[in-house]
Amino acid sequence: MNALLESVALALNSDPILAGLAVAWMSVNLWGAAVVFLAYGSRMRERAAMVNPPRHPLFPSFRGKRDASSN
User: Fold this and answer.
1) Which whole-number Å values give the CA distances from 10 to 14, 18, 46, in the listed order?
2) Residues 54/48, Cβ–Cβ less than 8 Å
3) What phi and psi, each to the nearest 5 degrees, are found at residue 27?
4) Cα–Cα distance between 54 and 25 in angstroms, integer?
5) pTM recorded for the entire structure
6) Phi/psi of residue 56, each to 5°?
7) Which residues are 59's β-sheet partners?
8) φ and ψ at 62, to 5 degrees?
9) DSSP 3-state percent helix, strand, coil across the chain (nearest 5)
10) Beta carbons of 59 and 51 less than 8 angstroms apart
11) How far apart are CA 9 and CA 32, in angstroms?
12) What is the residue extent of each domain of the chain?
């Protein structure tokens, strides 16, 4: 694993085009992850404001658990 990391570091240090592509690829991935994270959080806030949101496997319902624990 160490040899692989050294060869990648050597390739990125010796080829500026490859290094630029690697930086662009990482920035697109980080931007995409941030967009997904913010969109999911926004949707969770929308669902929390709904009176009776439909069930969905990606959006857990915390309202029922709170109501059940308060009884």
Assistant:
1) 6, 11, 48
2) no
3) -70, -35
4) 37
5) 0.60
6) -150, 135
7) 56
8) -95, -15
9) 75, 5, 20
10) no
11) 25
12) 2-70
28's tokens = 């697109």
Is the distance from CB of 22 to CB of 12 less than 8 angstroms?
yes
Q: Assess contact for 24 and 18: CB atoms under 8 A.
A: no
Cβ contact 53:61 at 8 Å: yes
What are 65's two structure tokens? Answer: 């658990």
Task: Give kind and range of the element (H or E) at residue 61.
Answer: none
DSSP state of 52: S
Tens of pLDDT along 15-67?
889 888 989 999 999 999 999 999 999 988 888 888 887 787 777 766 555 55
Q: Which residues pair with 56 in a beta bridge?
A: 59
* Ramachandran angles phi, psi of 50, nearest 5°: -75, 145
